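Single Protein Entry

Contents — chain, fold
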Amino acid sequence: MSSIRSHALAAEHCDAGVLLDHVRRSLAVRHFALVSGFTVEVGSFIEFISELGKPLTYYGGTEGSHPEHAAIHRVRYDPEASSRGELHAVDGPLDLHSAQSLRDPRPRYFCMLMVDSGWQDQPFGNNGESVLVSWSDALDLLQARDPEAYERTRATLLSDVPFPDGTARPVAYGLEQTRTENDLGVRLKYDLLENLRAIDAGSPEAESVASLCDAARDASRCFQLQSRDLVVIDNDRFGHGRMPVSGRRTTTRGEVFHNPRELWSVTLA
């Protein structure tokens, strides 16, 4: 999408210091940054993003799925891991969510490096395109749709809500430096709405999170990451997801091919 792609800086024409300055400036102004043509070498990737924050392993120190670094998750289709329901190995879509939404304090940034964009021969929206949403855009949309109902929704999102781990915490929270009334941080776990509906589908919490999810989808921006694109987003202010993607294909002769699409994701403290 032009509003995303137009802010990209090509790594081939810059040294690491210039790229880092670009990322920091873009994060300060737009809360996301895009670099094209970035290296897919693990050491260089980790060294670069470590200038922005500390790469985190998953909850409880659980390692990522990349054999060369514990903080990297390899997001790629894997039939065995997919059959076990492992989130980073499945095909299909991924709903909008926040990185490591259960962690406190909130991780500051989330990074995605597209190593291989995979099959790109389906209509747009069916090739695993990335989806980003500014939470303030989603909240602005909610407010515009029904100002009176929004005040109740906002108050509920800022109050304790039961999460799937059994802990109650706010979905939305204030930030130290804000620009607008709706410039709030959001932690949205991908299965939070399902959990709330299982408890009580008609509760204010379930209805408020459902409204947020609907607005987030409508306010989101969908674009295709090319191979060697690096995206860094403000993990308080942006959510991320993925459009549907096919993990495997079978030919008329019974040959099975797996999509080579692979993305590395890292969360930074």
Notes: The radius of gyration is 19 Å. Residues 23 and 129 are 22 Å apart (CA to CA).
